[in-house]
Inverse folding.
C-alpha cells in the first residue's frame, strides 16, 4: 500500500555533538536554509557532560535523508550522525495532557490501559502523563479527546538503536 499524498516520510537522525553554545542554532539554521522539515526535535546532554545527543525526526518526502546527514556532518561541533530505522530503534516520547475531569474513572481507565498516570487533579480537570512509543501516544490522545482535552504537550522523540545479541 502506498502512502497518501503529502503524508510525512519520517526518518530518525541522531547527532552526537559537542555540548557548546550555538550548536543547536547552527543545526536549526541548516534545516531552515535547506527547507528541510523538522517533525520532532529533542536535545539533552549524554552520559558525557561534554556531549549532547540531538534526536531529529525529519520529513524527507521531498529530500534525500542521506543529503541531510551529509549537510549535518559538515557542521562544526557535529561529531557523529546516525540514521535509526524504526524497526532497529527503541523510540519514546512524553505526553502531558490537561483533561476535563467529568469522568475521572473513565480517564483513569484509559491512562492505566496505556501505562500512564494521573499527576494532578481538582474537581474540574486532571493532568495525566504517559511515556511510550509515539504511536501509543497518538492512540491515547485520540481516546482522551472524548473526555475533552484542554491542553496537550508532547516532547520530541528520543531514540536509541536496539541492542543486538
Amino acid at each position: 500500500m502506498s502512502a497518501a499524498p503529502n503524508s510525512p516520510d519520517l526518518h530518525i537522525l541522531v547527532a552526537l555533538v559537542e555540548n557548546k553554545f550555538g550548536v543547536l542554532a547552527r543545526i536549526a539554521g541548516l534545516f531552515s536554509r535547506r527547507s528541510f522539515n523538522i517533525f520532532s526535535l529533542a536535545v539533552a546532554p549524554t552520559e558525557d557532560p561534554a556531549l549532547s545527543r540531538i534526536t531529529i525526526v525529519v520529513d524527507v518526502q521531498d529530500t534525500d535523508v542521506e543529503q541531510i546527514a551529509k549537510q549535518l556532518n559538515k557542521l562544526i561541533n557535529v561529531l557523529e550522525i546516525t540514521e535509526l530505522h524504526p524497526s532497529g530503534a527503541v523510540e519514546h516520547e512524553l505526553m502531558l495532557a490537561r483533561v476535563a475531569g467529568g469522568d475521572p474513572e473513565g480517564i483513569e481507565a484509559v491512562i492505566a490501559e496505556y501505562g500512564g498516570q494521573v499527576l494532578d487533579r481538582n474537581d474540574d480537570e486532571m493532568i495525566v502523563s504517559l511515556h511510550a512509543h509515539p504511536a501509543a501516544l497518538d492512540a491515547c490522545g485520540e481516546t482522551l479527546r472524548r473526555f475533552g482535552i484542554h491542553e496537550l504537550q508532547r516532547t520530541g522523540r528520543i531514540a536509541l538503536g536496539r541492542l543486538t545479541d
